[in-house]
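User: Please run a holo structure prediction.
Assistant: Happy to. Please share the sequence and the ligand.
User: Here you go; the ligand is zinc ion.
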Amino acid sequence: MNAGIVLTALLTMSALLQFWLAARQFRYLQRLAERRLREAGRARVAFAFSATALEFMLTLGLTLGGGIAYLDGFWHDRPAGAAGLVASVVLASVLLHVALRIAHARIVEASLDVARFSLKELLARASRPILPIIIVAAAAGQALAWLMMTAPSTWWLWATLLWTAGLIARVWLISDQPGGGLGMPLLPSSQPLTDPRLAPRLAAALARYGLAGSEIRIIVSPPGALRANARLAGSGRSRHVELSDTLLYLLTPAEVEAVLAHEAGHWRCRHVIRDLANRALLSMAGFGALALAMHHPWILREMAIPDTSPAAWLAAAVALAPLAAVLATPLRAHWRRQMEYEADAFAATHADKQALMRALEKLDASNATDRAADPIYARFYHFHPSQTDRRRRLDTMPIR
Ligand SMILES: [Zn+2]
């Protein structure tokens, strides 16, 4: 069978599966009484489906549509051609993502009142990571192509190591810049918590959770924003907790403590490291599959890429990444949901369990997250367990 037909079939089947899941979730949302939740849920589902459909179209355009063949023709005999080819393909996908990020803010977030940015501001914030990403892509493309040629049988192991080092650097870069970093271009600024009643109380709570001395920073939300959130960032001495100012308006001190306990649970259960290990495992699977495919140059030719150099294989891998990402989603979502349950369990034993449940409910209402979802849809996509599932697990835990 022709590799081009297999690719088209895989993309079509995967798109149909997602369409079926989206339709299920639409039907589920139809039954919700609360209008804001219903509409937010629909906007999210419709947007996520359209985004994947566009990504798949780009995959087809780059492969069967001749995009990579054209770019390869331009870069082939130039110095650092591998860097140029990989960076060009990455640029195409990054530009699509910037457009999607802006559309998401304008369509989904604006309809929810969770964030308000002017178009100019959005454009500036969303396009800020383009240059760093292209530089990294060019360097990675050149390094990987070199590895493939110098170590034809073991390159994929070295590539996994290189990739994992990149992931670690990225976590370190993001978390060491409070309120900023490469991956979070839309995050507002932050300042230390100075509230004389709350600061000592939360510092004492953090000490009880085994995080004595961690700074608490408040994320200043743009006017009118409703999204409330908390996260633990940084490592070692730069480790700190970030709470959005909206979260402090919304929750009582006991509830804020419970949310802090949940975030501390992520830290105490080493979730950042485990998440990195999971990503490293997935990247090894990806590079391994690419190494196996490279034994069969006809695959590339049948996908309308006549050149079968390492650079062309890498470009094809970048083009196929959205399909791989969709296929890996259920597994990644499963891993992440387990981590949420573990953090909840930590919070239930170290803080007020009832306060945690009340806080979760308030946060879900404010962020208009799907409090409940179609069970199959949620299993596939949701990185956070539903309110009902978390409540069910928390109910089985003893009260401190
Ligand atoms: Zn969590």
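The pocket of zinc ion is lined by residues 262, 266, 340, 343 (CB under 6 Å).
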